[in-house]
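Example (one chain per record):
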Amino acid sequence: MKVTRVVIYPFDTSSLGGQVKAMADVELEGELLIKGFKVVASKRGGVFISYPSKRVHGGKYYDVVLPLSRELKEHIREEILKAYRERVEGEPCPD
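Predicted structure:
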């Protein structure tokens, strides 16, 4: 499956002590829309992607979306970060 569209919603929580920089929705091949990805600030600088998750009893979070192949996981990550940089950081991303 290929990502056909990513929508970034800037949502910087750093002023409140949070680490979330943006939320993202990902569309796969025009057939499946996954909402709730997060772009999160890393403690080392930079950002990483957090998959949609659900909080359960005991305060733990579990991902509700799991790509089954490393290739798809990497493809989703790359496309979200590319869209994030274009939208938030203003960096043009070559195709």
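Caption: The chain has one domain: 3-88.
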